[in-house]
Amino acid sequence: MKVFNSRLQEAFQTKSVLKVITGIHNTNIQQVMKIAKAAELSNATYLDVASNTYLVKMLKSFSRLPICISSIDPVDIYNGVSSGADLVEIGNYDFFYDQGIYLNKEQILELSKEIKCLVYNVDICVTIPYYLNLADQISLAKDLQLLGINFIQTEGISKINCTKFDINLTKSPSSFYNLHNSFIPSLLSTYFISEFIDLPIIAASGYKNIFGPIAKFYGAYGIGIGSAVYKEIDIISMSNYINQTYNSLSLFSSLNSFSDIESELSKLPFSCLENFFNI
């Protein structure tokens, strides 16, 4: 595993990557700056922002955190990197989803090749779409590794019913099937893909402050959080929430079973646990 950015390299080595998402379509400067300042005051690893050149320049003017731009447009990505973005994420497929368009693995691979040629000297993350079957997800991940992509991300969907997946998830307790939350498809993908590739995996979509150890147990090197941060009322509350998430990633690094995780979760303050059940 190799990334260009030294801050990312250190976080990946300790499997404590915490991405704070300001909103892949959010170009509201005030909102983004509020979240960025909270991330700056906490132990966030990097910021994931809309691919907007003005936004990138504003963030780079004060933030010490690496800035990641998310897009599926090669021109947007090139312009974002030229404006100072430290890494890129080939993702943000929502634009296609809204139009009923779903890229296949060959199209995503070709897009990745094109963008890698444009920005060959920065770290590149590629999101593996949730709607691909597991065989295609694994195949795409293998191809991306051969291409030289630095790391990948799994995604989830909302209002998911886990029983629709015909998968024997032996590591998961039956209670997980009652959590109709968007993080579950990401968790499933992370677990199976991690068995076949050496690339680091970031798990995102619907994750909250104490989901970090669960994602790590299933093979993730870290998680992305966004919507849970937005719910906090001010910068200090946001920063505290981000730190709670980081601490959960660090605290459970030595746990070897789900029962260990469950035991440790029971020791957390109720103020932290209530976020877990509010889904």
Automatic annotation (TrEMBL):
It is found in: Plastid. Pfam families: DUF561. InterPro entries: RibuloseP-bd_barrel (IPR011060), Uncharacterised_Ycf23 (IPR007570). SUPFAM superfamilies: Ribulose-phoshate binding barrel. One of its GO terms (cellular component) is plastid. Keywords: Chloroplast, Plastid. It comes from the Eukaryota. PANTHER family: PTHR36895, YCF23 PROTEIN (PTHR36895:SF1). Belongs to the ycf23 family. This is Uncharacterized protein ycf23. It comes from Vertebrata australis. The lineage of its organism: Eukaryota, Rhodophyta, Florideophyceae, Rhodymeniophycidae, Ceramiales. The gene is ycf23.
